[in-house]
Amino acid sequence: MKQFFKTFFASLLALIIFSVLGIVILASIAAGFSNEEQKVTAANSVLVIDIAEDFVEQTKSDAFSEILRQRKGKSPSLTQLIGLIQHAKKDTAIKGIYIKCGQNPNGYAASEEIRTALLDFRNSNKFIIAYGETITQKGYWLANVANQIYTHPQGGLEFTGFSYETLFLKGLLDKLEIKPQVFYAGKFKSATEPFRYAKMSDENKLQTSVWLNALYTSFIQSVADTRGIEVAALKQMANEGKIQSANDALENNLVDGLLYDDQVKKLIAKKVRVNKQEDISFVSINDYLATVALRGSGSGKIAIIYADGDIEMGKGSNESITSDDYRVLLQEIKNDESIDAVVLRVNSPGGSALASDIIWREIELLKKEKPVVVSMGNYAASGGYYIACGADSILADANTITGSIGVFSVIPNIEGFMKNKLGITFDRVKTGQYADAPSATRTMNATEERFMQSGVDSVYHTFTARVAKGRKKSIEYIDSIAQGRVWIGSDAVKVGLVDKIGNLNDALATAARMAKLKGYSTKSFPESKSFIEDLISGYEDNIKTKAIKEEIGEAQWQVLQQVKKVKQIMSQTQARLPIFEVNHP
Predict the structure, then answer these.
(1) Which residue is catalytic, options 100, 138, 189, 367?
(2) Which of 102, 352, 382, 424 could lock onto 575 through a cystine, CB 3.0 to 4.6 A?
(3) H or E stretch including 91?
(4) Residue with more model confidence, 228 or 167
């Protein structure tokens, strides 16, 4: 017994020591990230913006990524990036901007917001130089703001026009003998077409053609404005495939020279008046973020609520807009007397119709207490528009994808697949005729189909009624521009779904004016967790995610995420954009 207690207390002491050491180590790591010395930008610096980085709507806490980045600095959010560009315009230490412009994963609306900020910077006496070994069209969308654009002699510029592609599953489902039972409201609601058709419907082709051509027109006009080339000539270049090499891009005045990286650096060295390129003080946008305090001024306070991702029921992760989390958040902001106004930044293709309605209701209650203004990002469509429609004012970027006011529900019938492919059959006992409805293991009868369609129609009517109330229009008019149709921001203004074109800063100015604020600071929600909180809470998810990715590979991981989305839309009525789409800008 004596030996037992000796071993027990020794183990207990070791556990206590280990726990204390663990806390000390974690605290030291956190302190290392949170208490770094304030960096100072050196004189005659050049700000480097690599647009191959995806500038998200709101920076999310991720302790593991911060550790793995080895203190390379947090990437700025889209809002922070724009704020940094605006600050750099007045910063005497920054002499110019160097844009790395190969790829551009940012959305069309986000790209336009960044481009607007860069154009404003260009109006100063400072330079912008852009360079990419190969430059995609979306990369060129941002690069063409530069005073000079260069590409690699053996690289080039993509300049072929835009295309949009949808993957259709009907043929596969037919072979597998899986019958998707689809119910939808809205003749333009294309989200279920991959299950119903082998190609795009006429209605879907029409709406896609309209918004895709609007994006392309915006792109072509941006090139015409900055490069001084006629729109017709630019379209001819793309239509005739004239830009096949770097030399073609140079001969057609789309770039200013064909240079290697070191030659571009020499040009920059001359502009900042140093002898060698090694002496150039390049400052990455991440490092610049650590030197600049982006704060407003004034006694007023505006809350910026980021609604970024799919809309889902319950509680969720950083990647989604969940009904429980946002209901609590909106209630807290409503009751916070220190907050004078709210800007809801929506960047969502939609999701659960029920979750959307829950969030819509909280916004209705919130706007009784303080002004609510919506700022739309790349997407604010279907459920994303649902949560936005009741705001006091709605602003969108010209290239925002919005509208898509329509709903659907899908119940797969896997009876044939299970029986004929796997030899599995089902039988049942039930206490009522519809006790097992809807079921994925048998075909619905006509009455059950009527129940399902009636439910979808009811949700659609509620959706259009919410929009009609928020936009102060008749339900009949809203129905005429709804029907699941997708609108681009510039057209959404014309049909009354959006009040005006503007970015997040414009939305903040609108909210300040409504709240009669002379000056204001902002606070972002959902609030980020502390380093330690994120490290502890995110440990299991990070380990699990990284282990699965390592085992199956990144490509298979993305397929798995698509499968999870398909499973999600099978479980409840959805107000969302299509899942299976590919853009070729």
Answers:
(1) 189
(2) 382
(3) none
(4) 228
Q: Which range, of 106-115, 442-451, 499-508, 553-562, averages the lowest pLDDT?
A: 553-562
Where helices occur in 228-316 by DSSP H, the ranges are 231-239, 246-251, 261-271, 285-289
DSSP β-bridge partners for residue 306: 345
d(CA 77, CA 13): 45
Q: How many CB atoms lie within 10 A of CB 213?
A: 13
At 294, the amino acid letter reads L
Average pLDDT over residues 328-343: 97
Taking a C-beta distance cutoff of 8 angstroms, is the pair 47, 98 a contact? yes
Residue 80: CB atoms within 10 A of its CB come to 20
Distance separating alpha carbons of residues 467 and 473, to the nearest angstrom: 8
**DSSP annotation string for 489-514:** HHHHHHHTSSSEE--HHHHHHHHHHH
Q: What would the pLDDT profile of 374-405 be if each residue is shown by its tens digit? A: 999 999 999 999 999 999 999 999 999 999 99
Q: What is the pLDDT of residue 543?
A: 58
> How large is the angle between the packed helices 323-335 and 353-366, nearest 10 degrees?
0
Q: What is the pLDDT of residue 507?
A: 97
pLDDT over 50 at 24, yes or no? no
**128: pLDDT strictly greater than 50:** yes
E strands within 33-81?
45-50
DSSP letters, 234-246, are: HHHHHHTT---SH
* Of 170, 168, 128, nearest in space to 147 by CA: 128
Phi and psi based region of residue 423 (left: phi greater than 0; alpha: psi -120 to 50; beta: remaining) = left
Instruction: Quote the pTM value.
Output: 0.86
Q: Cα-flanking dihedrals φ and ψ of residue 560, to 5°? A: -60, -40
The answer to whether 577 and 379 have CB atoms below 8 angstroms apart is yes
Is 549 one of the annotated active-site residues of the chain? no
Q: pLDDT at position 36, please?
A: 46
Distance of CA 73 to the CA centre of its chain: 21
In sequence order, which residues have a C-beta less than 8 Å from that of residue 472 and are 6 or more positions away?
Answer: none
Residue 382 catalytic? Answer: yes
Those residues with Cβ within 8 angstroms of residue 449's Cβ, 6 or more apart along the chain or in another chain: 181, 183
Dmax (CA) for the chain in angstroms is 94
Closest CA to 305 of 381, 233, 370: 370
Q: Is the pLDDT reported for residue 325 higher than 70?
A: yes
Token pair of 301 as six digits:
């306070």
Helix (H) / strand (E) containing 120: helix 108-122
Sheet holding 127-135, edge to edge: 257-258, 148-157, 127-135, 94-100, 45-50, 281-284
The Cα 173–Cα 545 span in angstroms is: 29
Give backbone dihedrals phi and psi of 125, rounded to 5 degrees, phi first.
-90, 15
Spot the catalytic one: 382, 409, 490, 524: 382
* Burial call 512-544: b when 16+ CB within 10 Å, e when fewer: bebbebeebebebbbeebebeebbeebeeebee
What number of H helices and E strands is found in the chain?
A: 23, 22
